[in-house]
Design a protein that fits this description.
24% helix, 4 helices, signal, alpha+beta, disordered N terminus, globular, 15 strands, 242 residues
Amino acid sequence: MKVLFVALLFVAGTFARVAVQEQQIQAEGPACPIDDPLERPGPDSINVTLDPIAKLLEGSIRGDIVATGLSTLHYNVDINALLLTATFELTLAQVDVTTTYEATGYVDARPLAAETVPQGNFTGSGNARIQASGLKVQGSASLFVNIIGNKVTVSRLVLNTVEFTTLRLDLGAQFLIGGSPVDWTTWSDNIKANFDRDFAANKNAVVDKVRLAANNIVGQYTLAELIDLISGGGDGGEPCEN
């Protein structure tokens, strides 16, 4: 979940098209064609902090990465800069990502069960692959701007829809979490039923934990910087420029 969240944030920030009408910022994308397959050379750092859900510690790296299917991504974002509210919808028909990695960190997805998301301190290395289809996330958020530093936090998050058709993950036999390996075939076969059950039973707690994790990224930006990131204009260029 964490890897997919970070990947989708990167794609949204890079390829959005934004129309600004007074205080209303409306984004629909991708505005620019996404290479399919999308290839990024390695090695590269993958240190990520998404407390309290997960963290990849310093020194974690990935090798060459190849992603197919990102051309099926579509999203809509509507931000009211005056009321500090946002609505969003994201769909991804299919994605297949392969890479190599070496990583240490932790995962704590409670109240989701351990069979839904393996949890604990982890170490891993080798080949990695994630495949997903039928992804849809739809919801809304309220934002808060700190008067000191003008940084943004998500004060309220609503996820009306979080669904997928299939999800298959394989981090290899060298991945150990809580001191134990993961049977990735069994996990992939059961993840949809397990997630649907756990999310329905613990929705409020899970969504608030996602909100706290998202603030590790959102909290780095002012409102103007966040809008600029979504617009793909962070370097002052047009969205489709290389």
